[in-house]
Amino acid sequence: MPGQIRGKCRISVFVSGTGTNLQALMDYQQLHPDWPAEIVLVVSDKPRCQAVDRARRAGIPVFANEVKAYPDKAAYEADILRALQEYDVALIVLAGYMRLVGPTLLNAYRNRILNIHPSLLPAFPGRTAVRDALAANVSETGVTVHYVDEGIDTGPIVAQRVVPVEPGMTEADLLERVHAVEHELYPATIAQVIMDRQM
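RE: above sequence
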């Protein structure tokens, strides 16, 4: 494949939105040549999202198709799987991918799909974790990196970091603080997983 770096674990980043975590991973890869991962493919279910634009500007190959263009979710994931195999992807990294991963990809990449979530799981799973933490009036929340299974944010936890919640914080304030932690924790955890598993 073009751009392959010898000895690197070939990863695919799955996105659906603005792509702040994707950008952080791309920046980290650029700044740390010893990072053991190489982003070889970005996958999105939202062809017009900002994350796809970020990947294209960086020259990273993109698979971006809407699920509704396929007969069903299995057909959609089978097409993704073909792209992953074409680029010899060893590890999938979800970074704001707002869709449950189905059996087609789970079975092919069992225990090789990571997700980052903006809470200290098992607290506040789902899409509104930051809002839910504020509503619960907790003094701290956090960031979790975990393996993906059939559930919603239920897979085995790999790494966590605490994020303090200050009185009077808005959702935007807390989200900014969470993102800062995510952008540090995710590349470090990906590297640790690759090295521990000798991927």
